[in-house]
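Input for the complex:
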Amino acid sequence: MTLSRREVLKLLGAGGTATLATDLLDASAPPEHVPPLQSDVVVVGAGFAGMIAARSLLRAGKKVIVLEARDRVGGRIKAGKIAGQTVDVGGMWVGPTQTRLLDLIKEYGLHTTPQYMAGKNVEQLAGRRWLAEGEDVAMDPPEQKEFDGVFAELDRLSAEIPLDAPWTAPRAEEFDRMTAEDWLVANTKLESVRSFLRAGLRDIYQAETYQMSFLYLLFYIRSGDTMETLFGEKDAAQAFRVVEGLHGVAGKLASELGSAILLETPVRAIAQGPKGVTVHSDKQQWFADHCVVAVPLPLSVRIAYDPPLSPERDALAQHMPMGSVIKWYVAYEKPFWRERGWNGMTNSALPPIAVSFDATPAEGKPGLLAGFIDSPWSLRWTSRPVSDRKKLVVDHLVDLFGPDAAHPIDYEDQNWPAEVWSRGCYGAYMGPGVMTTVGKSIREPQGRVYWAGTETSTKWMGYVEGAIRSGERAAAEVLARYKG
Amino acid sequence: MTLSRREVLKLLGAGGTATLATDLLDASAPPEHVPPLQSDVVVVGAGFAGMIAARSLLRAGKKVIVLEARDRVGGRIKAGKIAGQTVDVGGMWVGPTQTRLLDLIKEYGLHTTPQYMAGKNVEQLAGRRWLAEGEDVAMDPPEQKEFDGVFAELDRLSAEIPLDAPWTAPRAEEFDRMTAEDWLVANTKLESVRSFLRAGLRDIYQAETYQMSFLYLLFYIRSGDTMETLFGEKDAAQAFRVVEGLHGVAGKLASELGSAILLETPVRAIAQGPKGVTVHSDKQQWFADHCVVAVPLPLSVRIAYDPPLSPERDALAQHMPMGSVIKWYVAYEKPFWRERGWNGMTNSALPPIAVSFDATPAEGKPGLLAGFIDSPWSLRWTSRPVSDRKKLVVDHLVDLFGPDAAHPIDYEDQNWPAEVWSRGCYGAYMGPGVMTTVGKSIREPQGRVYWAGTETSTKWMGYVEGAIRSGERAAAEVLARYKG
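Predicted:
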């Protein structure tokens, strides 16, 4: 079942190394084997959720086909190239409590490396700029006090949220009628603290505080442990990068699944009856006992279901838009910021770019800075030429790092709202009034159709860790059907 | 091109009269003619928007095919039956400034009748209940003063919104960062006024004040003239019913379009190139110069586009969920409320049912009351048995009308969230941060693909009037391409 190096590279899409670029052009070549028409389970989507579901099912002895719309695996994890380096242009970090992902990295013999944090970061509020140490923000004492108070209160409230049923939380109805912004305004006094928190929440969510349900924010925080683990680098969600890239982990998964994965096979319809499911793509049909749909939640309703989905599940997908973000990389001859004792990290309360960080490879050059054009600005910039976005980003870096930042040797960005099979990143979110009306439908199987994808996870929802856990859960649900 | 009576009834789905119910069963019969594979324009959707677009194009000499997924025409206008009466279980009213719809009714020789309002209506707030005259609410003077002030201020603010580009309004950014609820809380003092307004806005929108962008609310108000025209009956959006039903108007349109309409033909994909469009259904393909997509906006992205839609148009659809509502009818031997000088109208600030009204036919019996299980309660009740919903509604009516309401002779409801080709009603809405980021894409053609549907209208958006205007606009845009 293992694939040749060439086949793996094809599955990977953007390839594993710089020297094999010709393989990438080959992605649309027809499959070299005839896919079986009948399997036990069809998995829709070869992101982490789908591949983990398929792996779990294969390891339990089931026949599995994974149908992937794109010409690559990985979903919102994707390889890109800048200045000859292969980098993660989607998800890239792993934190110490993301145990399933850490296990997977270890199992496949891959390696983590701490996010570079040695030195000073640049902090910016409207009209003020200062340097701070490591992940410290070093606000003024009254600001810091209010900031810490908000963190503590959000942690306290989120600790009350039952992760498997947030709609039953003690104050669920009340909190679901509010936006995160409503809560923020009612619980802070200093505009500087508010704007810092808005930028921070925007950056972990890629939606605005006035778009998120406060109940959903609390669920999100608890799902990722605490505010500190979500926002921090050290001992937190942004603690480590994968030396071989998170796309490298995706590649290993794809390699293990081998010919079970069919690329460029968008699923258009899923029909089910008493005997099984029929999954329709543009090319052909597959027959199976069960189906696991592991695509971004809002896109799950772009597949036609027969019989139709429940009204609740359909309404849920309608009410869960994707966050929006463009991830950028800028390359310099060397990481010039390190020479002055800076770590490349910036936190700005001024949109459209809240953060940057050092993504320089282990060899120490080229110097790479990466960051995000944040929602909603990503939507305003998504259709502009790359050269415009390059200017936006480089001007921003010159503003924060000075003239040294003015002469990059390369620029690349990943325009997630334009990527047809993601249509946004990082994940989908809920506005007010969604969780308490149709939230319960999020993992409920629809007959023989089961749901995976990071949005359906209770733990580390929105992260690769959540995707992995969702794939494991969906596989377990399907396997239980065979035992039942 | 005109159809037989039998064919018209088939197009109508639920039929025009009570005596021809057998025709209704025939809706899934195969078409009796072979549809042409080539036309000038393919219209997707045979609601008012699609049928008007098709009619305009046909009258301009173009060859047109209308592809409709359902086994009936009319979209969110639909005929239903209760106690032997054929009624509108979707949109039903027409107002004096809805000039295109009035023209259409006149053109087809159909008739309007005033909404019954003679007598007293029941008003209810938590802990208080009183009778008022006609459409008067008769609150306490301090309440009435604040209520009137809110109406006036909303009218004043909405008058500043440019209907064709609300994202350019003077305070667009500020208002789009707020929910309607945020504005309401900041601009009212009395909880009674707030709850009345929440119920009222819920009832015209079928979404919650905490879910709507305040900018979108202002656009909506201006689109429907003023708060008074939206909320009122006399001289307002709810002034008249159509004697033959709004579904009767849809039937006339379908009759005029005749064999141009193909039922039970869901469109799955639209591909376009330099020479034209190819529209794919499950059955076959159609070729045309242009395509008009006239389906509810959130459902427009369930069609696969090649090339893909712009990121902005896709994000717009992701961020515009449908409102949710279940419309109910309860039939009694006679309109018992009239005998006591009541008009059947109720306004309650207590969910889940904000309003009821008299829908008794001209003959004076059976007595019909109609109303809505409002969003978000419609989502909570959508999958419950009809018998449960009947109990909910009848209990509500008994509470407001007394024991006379306890013995209905019939109950029917239209469960819009469960209707697969609508997935909600009345219309789609925008939460905060949508209008000012991707709102501009709402009518922008995507190459040869044009957009119709009430959500794309600037005037009477969300109403049949808006649907008609959107169809006319889309047809004009397509015709301009032939002239250019």
